[in-house]
Every structure is written in structure tokens, then in C-alpha cells.
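Narrative progress, year one. The postdoctoral researcher (J.K.) led the effort to move from monomer predictions toward full complexes, under supervision of the PI. The following entry was the first complex the group processed end to end, covering 940 residues in total.
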Amino acid sequence: MLTRREMLTATALCLALPAWAASGPSDWDAVLAKARGQTVYWHAWGGDPKINDFIAWVGQQAEARYGVRIEQVKLANTADAVARVLAEKQAGKTDGGAVDLIWINGENFAAMKAAGLLFGPFAESLPNWPLVDTVGKPATVMDFTEPTGGLESPWAMAQLVFEYDSARLPEPPASAAALLDWAKGNPGRLTYPQPPDYLGTTFLKQVLYGVTPDPTVLLKPVDAADYAAVTAPLWAWLDAITPSLWRQGKAYPANEPALGQLLADGEIDLSFAFNPGRASAAIAAGELQDTVRTMVWQGGTIGNASFVAIPFNAAHRAGAMVVANLLLDPEIQAQAQDPDVLGFQTVLSLDALSEADRARFDALKLGVATLPPLALGPVLLEPHASWMTRIAADWTKRYGVAP
Amino acid sequence: MAGPVIAGLAGNVLPLIGTDAIGRLLAWPGLGGAVRLSVVTGVVSTLCAVAISLAIVAALQGGRRFGLLMHALSPLLALPHAAAALGLAFLIAPSGWIVRLLSPWATGWATPPDLLILNDPGGIALTLGLVVKEVPFLLLMLLAALPQADATRRMMLTQSLGYGRVSGWLLAVLPAVWPQLRLPVYAVLGYAMTSVDMGVILGPSLPPPLSVQVAAWMMHPDLSWRGPAAAAALLQLGLVLVVLGIARLAERPLARVGRHWAESGLRRQGLDRIATPLATATALAVVVLVAGGMLGMVLWSVAGLWPFPDALPAPLTLATWTRAAPSLTATATATLAIAILSTGAALALCLGCLEAETRFGLAPGTAAMGLLYLPLIVPQTAFVPGLQVMVLAVGAADTVPAVAAAHLVFVLPYVFLSLAPPWRAWDRRIAVVAAALGASEARTFWHLRLPMLLRPVLTAAAVGMAVSVGQYLPTLLIGGGRITTLTSEAVALASGGNRRIIGAYAVLQMLLPAAGFLLALAVPTLAFRHRRGMRAA
């Protein structure tokens, strides 16, 4: 094990280019020494007690292994942390910032990257980085087609899965066309979070993948494509389904938890989540009927990754890097994938793991509603972030302002 | 208190507003609907809340039922708005408690009906939520004002002249009470037009009320949306000011109607027969809706699986509570410390101001009063980030005193609001008598004014505590996540929409202020048990 660590460190050293200077993780022992005794303020969405418990557990591990304490700052919205860093920059506070680590992805990352609010690159020099499956899971280095450039380190994979109550809906529709037919025959039993909520917009993008003739244009910025022609089938599909939606499309749930609550309340028969293990974890926690199952569409569903990033002025940068690295540790990753804990899919390549570490993953129960990895089907890449913005804005124009 | 708001606005809003921001705001297709919603729900809910509160006091005050009602209502005051809204939503939703209690035996529904009750486009659910949440606040304000308006003797007089209870109250007591009630009503109006948390949960979303959209833009990952958000926040401020102006102007014609009635000599005793049962029924409805919602949330906090149409959760579990327990002591202590610091400072400032006003005959102008209430009507998201930059620049962020100072911005207006009218209405002839007997001004203050005004002072303190405990954005932004309070924790958890967690935290958030309100009711009763003239009702 020791030799493997050394080898990994050596690999990391090779990757660490001169641009690193003293602040980066190139000299990992120095980072560890500096991190000992630090308290890392990890700003993370706090809306799910299961995730909060997991972060607390990671904190215990970090303290035991490296003497680093983690204090989760529970956010209602990740943009609050972005705003805080921005305010510090405006106030000229270039070190000793309040935010050490942010759970981030997509638009928030793009915004912080563009505004120069991030420290790094650091991710690809972390000792555990070589374990990350950047080939099989390209979303670990491409955040909504935005190259991460080592400014954020992945810690969990997410993939869109549909959740349905098998007691009421034995054969769920498995494509955009089938979903439309089913909704017409069962009015009022389907809805989606109101865009620009990210899950609602993801649902629109998933439908777009299913109805547009050439989905490859979605990976380029929206300006590079014929937007009207590409999205016309999507609007036609939405026009057709809206009268059959829950509340005839006159109201929409606000976000993923609200959608999940509707499924639990029996208001809808079909829902979706960005976490293949959510349904199993909710069933285990007694929050969802045990008849709920998950499925994916033919042709695959959209997937992305969750990351951690370090602000440019973080007070405890060394500690934050130690935590980012710890999150890539096989033991931590296996814990996160345990359906009784989070059910988040790992970002690691199982082939790169040692025999003992691979066994941790093999030993995991799947959970009553979770699909085995092979049945999850192909992962569709997130379209370029500009599609999300444009589609959400157009959705608001068409459906978001009831007459 | 205008200083922080203006500084916050200047630091955050104004730089963002360019022609581009205004253009993007105007280009937003939901603007007209959002403005209409904010104004209509704000005005209608305030009118209803004022009418209900006046009717309750006019028809029921003095009776046994009134005392019971006040004891039932006062803890509800401490309920955070978001928790009250979620509780109400769970009551009235098609899959909610009321339908569950009736299903399937009465309704035949095995699955929830597809009815648009919550988030209706007209904002009826939102209006209902605002009304039931503001009635207890207005009642408490009324109750604090009544003794200074000499209500009891006025009522005796009108009744001896043969007026009915309600008509006598409206003609003789209301004109004396209204000047003290005006500012609380304005605060309610300002809140109703700018509230975010209630609008998100109960209001429509196609489009949402303007305040909800401002918050959404402020939190948009694309930072360029802060421009339109800032412009919309200013628009919102303008709307509130216009509506307040209209409310002020409407007083005169209304007073004229009242005078005509008084001069006509009509006794209108029949009014009592309608108003009394109506007031009792609405008061009961308010208690049932808020308390029922609260009870539902408490049940959720110990619920296992609770599917439709079960009326009660089958497996009960303490898992939610044991999960919340470890961090609780530290969080509750911080919350209490901040609340005591900010409320104490606010009380000292208000008492100082008011006493100086009495001694030196200084009367604050309308403009000064308007500035004091600025924090209540300017949306928090518009100026708190600017305030944060300011606090960061002086290097005071992330400490308990800094957070308490930020809370003071919001606590002070409410404390002043509840304290100033009864303070000013205190019969100054008592001070003249005291001076004639040789008492110094300080002695008059410590031995007469303050003890006689114990009830409003404690009420103001309880309101201040509740306001401080309820602050989210200032706690998060100024505290930088280093300072955790019950509310900052609760709002983060509530963003997950998990009713179990929300239920548990709603109870916790309520306990501290509820204790304050109970003290505010109990201590004067105890202190004045041998002072008949000092009893409230």
C-alpha cells in the first residue's frame, strides 16, 4: 500500500508543473503537515440530512487520519457561497476567506471560473487523482462541457433515473414518445420541477435528446447551432403534453425534493431524480413506498458529476486539498455508494483499485430500487451550459407566465 | 437604521443598475403578472388581517373567550413564516391532512384529486397564509395599545349611550387606537408585499410574486442577473411606497364615513349579532389553520412512512430528532445570545430615543420615521449583500457581535414599532404630578414610566427576540457560516423540502420566541396583580 501511495505521489509530482509554486499539492507531505490542526469550512447544500450525516462522517475520517476538522456550512443554495466569495473579493479580502471548500458544479462552477474566484489548478495533482475514471466517466473532467482544468475535484457521479410506483404503474414508459402517450392516457399523474430549476431543465434536455434528430450539436455552444430547428421538436412535445400534466401545467413543483414529495404523497405516478440510489435510500429511511422502482430510457440518460472547489482566498487551503483528496479515497467512495448511506455512484475506475478496495464496492448491496451499474445504460453528456440557459428562458416565455 | 440599508443599497444595488439591467427586467414576460400579484396579495391580505383583528377585539374583548383566544394565539406569533406556510400547505393540499381525514370514506379518493388549491394563479392560498400569520401579530399590537387609549372607559360611555359593542368600539375606541396601530399595519403591508418564504411555498409560480423573482435572480448562478434583480428590488420598494401612500390618503375619507355615522346617531346594536359569531368563527379558523398546520408538522417530525390517504403516520420514529440533537445545544445558545444582544441593544436605543423625545420635546419627522422602517420594506436580498461587503471591509465579519449588529437593523424597527405608540400615549399628567412632588426626570423614568409601561416593553422585547431568531440571510452572509443559528440551520434543511426535518426545526425555532411571548404575557399579570388599573383586558 505504501509503495502504491508513493507511486501515486510520484505520478502527481510529474503532473504538477512548475506553475504550481509552493501553494499547490506537489509537495503532498508539506500539504499534510500544513493541514494538520486546520478546520475546513465546507460550504455544501444542507437540504438532505443523509448528505449532512455523510459529510459529518467524512469529517470524523479526516480528523482521525490527518488531524483535519470539517465544519459543514449548510447552505440553502450554493449561490450563497459564490456570493460570499464575490463579496470578499469586492471587499479586497484576498486571503483568510470564510469559504474553504464548496460543493459545486455546472453553472456555479462556470460563474466562479469566469470571475477568477477559484484556487488552482489543484485537482489533477492530488495523490488519489490517478484512481479517477476520466475515460469511462468523462463528466469527471467536463462539467457541463466546461473543462474543469483542475479547478475542481469530482467526488460523486449523478445520473438521471426515472422513479415510478410499480404498484400503480407496472410498465413505465421508456422514451420521450412513450411518455407522451402514457401521459395522455393518464392525465394529471406527471410533472417536472419548474425551470430554471436544474432538475426541471435536465428533464427538458433529456426530452430534447430523445426528440431532436442530431443530438451532437448540443455539446457545442448554442450559438453554433440552429437553435430554432433543434428545439422545435421539444416545444411540440411540450405543447402536446402540458394539458395532461399534473394541475394541467398551471403549477409546477419547485425542485427535486418537492417532486419526490409528490411521488411519496401519491399525487403523481412517475418522478425522476439525479441520483440512481435516491429511491432506495428514501425507501430505507421510510420516506417512500417500498413499491417504488427506478428505470432509465432507451438510448441512455443524462449524467454529470458533483465536484468540490477551493476559493482563491480560502483560509485553510491545505486542509481543503486534504479533504478533496480524502473524498477520492476508495473507502470514502464506497461509503457514499452504499444505498443505505447516499447511493451516489463512484467517480473512481474500479479497474484502477487494489483487490481489497474493489471488494468494498463488490460487497455493496444494491438497494431495493437501484439498477445495477450495467443496467443504467449509456450516460449522455450534459449539453453545453448555454443550452440550459436558453431553454430555461424560452420555457419561461412559453409556459412560465400563465395568461 | 437607514444607514446600513442605504449603504447596502449603494454598495450592491446601484452599481448594478444600468440600462441593460432595466431592459432585461422589462423584457421579462412575467413582470406585469408578478407586480399585480405582489400588490393584490399584499393589499388584500393586509385588509383582511386588519379587519379580522379589529372585529375580534371589538366583538370579543373583555370576554372570557378573548382571554383564551389570546393565550392560544400568542405562541403562534413565534412560528417562523416558512414553517407556518408549510404547515398550512400540508393542511390544504389535495394530498394534505384535511383531504386525508376525509378520504377515502367520505370522498372516495384513493389517490389525491388533481385540484389546483396550492400555488393557484390568483394567489388565494398565499393571501390566506399571510392573513393567518399576521392576525396574531396585529392582535398583540392592538392589545399593547388598548390600555393607553383608555378603551374601557370609552366603551362604558358608548354602551351607556345605548351603542352596541361593535359600533361603540368602532366609533369611540378605534380612532384613539389607530395612530398607535398605523405603523404595525404598514409593517404588515410591507411584509406581505415583499415576503419571499411564504410566496415560495404558497404562492403561484407562473409567474411568481415579484419578491420571489427578485430572490431567484439574486441567487442565480449567472451573476449578471443581479442587475435586473436590483432593478426589480427598487421597483418593489417603489410599489410599497405607493401603496403605503395610498393607505395614508385613504384614512381621511374613511374617517369622514365614521364621522357621518357618529353624527347620524345610529346605535347599530344589531351589528353585534352578526359580528360576534363572525369574529369568533374567524378567530377559531385562524387558530385551527395555524395550530393545525403546526400539529401536522410536529407529527411529520416523528413520522415514518405516511402515505396518502392515511390520516396518521403508522410507524412513529424519533430518528429525525436524534439526528438533530447533537448540534442543538450550541446552535440554540448562539441563537439566544444573538437575540438577547440585538434585542437588548434595540430596547436601550428605543427607550433612550423615546425618553429624549419626552424630555426635550423632540418629535421625529415623517421622513425620519420612514427611514427607520426602510429595512422592513426593502427586500433583504437587495441590500444585505452590500452590507456584507461593508462589514467585511472593516474586518468585523464572522463574529457573534457582528451578526447581532446585523440583526439589530431588523430588530430595532420592530421594537420601536411596538414600543413607541404606547410610550407616547402614556398620560403625561402623571409626570407632571411627579415633578410637582419633587421627583427628578430620572426618578420619573425609573419609578413611574418604565414600570407602568412594563407590558409594552416586554411585548416589544418578545417581538424583537422573535425577529432576531427568524433572521436567515443576515445570519448567513454576515456570519459567513461560522455562526449557526436555529434558523440558518432550519432554512438550509428546509430547502430539501423534507417535512420531517422542517417539522422538528419549526418546533425548535418556535420554542425560544414562544417562551419570550409567554413571559411578556405572564410577567405583567404577575407584577400588576395588585394594580387593577394596569390590567390589560
